Amino acid sequence: MDLSHWGWGYADKFLSREARMQLGDLAAAGLGFSPLGLDEPVSLDDVVLPDTVVNAPKTLLHLFDGTSEGRIRNTYGRAYRDILRGFRGDFASAPDLVAYPTSADEVRRVLDWASDAKVAVVPYGGGTSVVGGVECPRRDREEAGLNGVVAMNMARLDAVDEIDPRSRLARIGAGARGPALERKLGEHGLTLRHFPQSFEFSTLGGWIATRAGGHFATLYTHIDDLVASIEAVSPVGALKSWTLPGSGAGPSPDRFLLGSEGTLGAITAATVRVRPRPRYKASATAVFATFEAAAVAARMLVQSDLHPTNCRVLDPREAGLNGVDGAGRAVLIVGFESDDHPLEPWMSRALELVNDAGGACEAPVRYVAPGADGQRSSQGADTWRSAFIDAPYMQTNFVSMGIIIDTFETACTWSGFDALHADMIREVRDVMKRVAGRAFLSCRFTHVYPDGPAPYYTFACPARRGAELQQWAEIKAAASEVLMRHEATITHHHAVGRTHRPWYERQAPSVFLTALSAAKRALDPSGVMNPGALIPAATPPGGESAM
Amino acid sequence: MDLSHWGWGYADKFLSREARMQLGDLAAAGLGFSPLGLDEPVSLDDVVLPDTVVNAPKTLLHLFDGTSEGRIRNTYGRAYRDILRGFRGDFASAPDLVAYPTSADEVRRVLDWASDAKVAVVPYGGGTSVVGGVECPRRDREEAGLNGVVAMNMARLDAVDEIDPRSRLARIGAGARGPALERKLGEHGLTLRHFPQSFEFSTLGGWIATRAGGHFATLYTHIDDLVASIEAVSPVGALKSWTLPGSGAGPSPDRFLLGSEGTLGAITAATVRVRPRPRYKASATAVFATFEAAAVAARMLVQSDLHPTNCRVLDPREAGLNGVDGAGRAVLIVGFESDDHPLEPWMSRALELVNDAGGACEAPVRYVAPGADGQRSSQGADTWRSAFIDAPYMQTNFVSMGIIIDTFETACTWSGFDALHADMIREVRDVMKRVAGRAFLSCRFTHVYPDGPAPYYTFACPARRGAELQQWAEIKAAASEVLMRHEATITHHHAVGRTHRPWYERQAPSVFLTALSAAKRALDPSGVMNPGALIPAATPPGGESAM
Q: Which residues in B351-382 are b (16+ Cβ under 10 Å) and which e?
């Protein structure tokens, strides 16, 4: 199946005009406003690219692709901004060249050349960044004093080897995508069990570089916790941490690379913690009169040490939009999985807690056991899962209808949530009404922790043709300012990239940014690694001693 | 109760001559060789210190203590090397002064003065380091080009405030010791539930600086996972991370400070994840014919997702030495705790796994429930716990009898364990026989992970008076070389300090050390923070671009 050169995922998931008109009617019901029209994307052949300003090195010609299609397909991630610009045929940030290294040694040769030639290198995984993490615009490259931009596509470093079922470890190339690595692990009855929404297209290296969050609610869901060791190549040399279940030897080198977003080097492989596929599952869906009541239930569940694998809360708008509940109620989906034991005691206690918090399960709990013919999960969970995977395609289709739709996410303490949420709903609705006349805003919890939830907001409003990016930027800024005021993280699992950088610089302790910038200069003296992502492309003089 | 100026913990735990003679007889039975004699420590008054070479700053005089006793009590940690030297009255590494800041601002003023005056600052918590983490010998200070050494004792930064039961968070000063912070949390029904062996004396700041391991076997036991945010002061300014349950915003500033061992700055406070005290407990003790069989059971338990709070394996020598089993069998202690639910289903499944692995429970499972009068835990667990807390006192008493006894620990994959363990037993016994004529070596697992165990070795042999440190160093080097050969971490929870540095420099990726050294230079331009711990006191020129 072909991938779209501008929208999310597979090209054929961009619907026909007729199907999009039907979707528009549905949207009107769900969002409360109608599409403004129906537009068509600029075709691949009609895109006009800026001229290439650097040439591939003669000794590495075989690794480089300078075709228009290659450049276009390695320009953007899949943020709303990216999809809109791609739809309109604007690929002004296209890299000059795309490199396809096939080994860590070739990565090193590309970085050696780029450091000498002063060319920016953007490690490119699945291209699903929603924060401008893989787009190096001309301004960033110029600020870094560089001559051009190479996208380094990691797709060919995709081996899955050194599978160790006894230690539950596997070494996987950074360029391996979710389905491919799961297929290879599945041959051994194993799974990495890391399912971000981008799973179909994103890569292990991208997950590590951006501290991706999996779709499970508690315990081992962040890629951070699934990494046992990392291999990477920085401009000053290669790095390979030891594969250790635990260590107290100095600050963790893995945690230093997790979230580094390609600014310190390119991740080439990792040894990750895998596990047998689950044989037992239990899932229940409960409805609550209010979002607040469902939130209390989620808190009780995550603080119970029952460790549900799923503990997702949808507010009434979110439940309606995703077809999980149409009666204006909040929904909590709670689930357990195990490869070892039946889950009745876990689920029974979970349902007592749900009941104590005022929740009602209208359908029986669904249990799956080895050999049994049970359904895989409860109705709510099924409906939820397909909506979850399809959501990015909705955004792509909506772009053609003049609808701005996007998400943002955070994490905060349980004590801080109520005030944050109230401000967020009020201020983001206000700004949407101001810039677009209409406003849709919903919330769910994607992850819950003993100390707080990770609220995830979906917003939508009508676009004004030509003003979309400005409208979007005003909404995004309003939401981000609320986060800053409440000291809630600018990103829980979407990463910083370029979009979040202004707020990240206010959130991260400046002494830490001083240390991070110094480390960056030591590993990347020419400043070629993904300039402008995460930290400023050029550190201002005297930055070392800033407070 | 007075603390010993040279030995572990309370002074009165150093036994009378008569009691030590009895202990010696016991030791002969347990270790297989007899004490060589009975010696007495040099008294506090008889210690001769080197002259003080720096004066306290006039504006901060009230924070400084230059008395001999103050200097002696802030010289060493409690490694075997420290206890032996202290016993003999050798405090050659005594700091020139001790500073007692009472606030983060005073920490900053001390660091400002020290950076200007080129005086080394060693943050001093509970003084329980076993790796030379708080001893700054003259050589390290001179290599760093510094004029003197100040121990910065953090004891007065011990407030417990901002307790948030709903979010299960509490802000605690870095100088708070285990019992004091647990007492204050206990007033709210809460616990940090972090119980390293040094718990009685060590501090929150020390735990964070050294990545301490708690005494629970799985899940939330490392201080790393209990930290929600950190406050610290570096020579270029203060740092305060946001209190967040999760974040994907760049590399974690907390994980950067965790394990930094005072080299980047002094930790002044942290907001930590607390929880209600457990109301339900379950504990069982199983015996196995061999250590290998017990290890398989531990692996099955930790890979089951039952998440036992205790899952400790003792080899036959360890079980004998600790009085848990005298029949030459290996012992596994498995336990569960919860504040939420009875634990029968968890324990039942755990015992099935233990049984499958060939284990036998000779005593019934002990359950504790609210209101019930049950014993707190099984026999094995009780015996184990008191031996665990008393073990360091044994070492202190043995020093006076001419017995070298010490421990080292690591972590490795399950697949790598058998070969590592076989080499370790053979080579460490060999070196002890060579340097001491006799050898005792036992092993237990202190922690287990789905991907591997954390083996913890206890060794003992007769000392030759005056040659103890050389004997010890040869044994330590032999053990450390085995770890390097098997790529097992040089330390699982004892930290790097100065003792482990030569091996840490081989374990840590050199590119990472380049980054860490650059960060250190940016935050500590004068190089005053704990010079010689973790990373070299002075980075050789050109270190930035080393591979």
A: bebbeebbbebeeebbbbeeeeeeeebbebbb
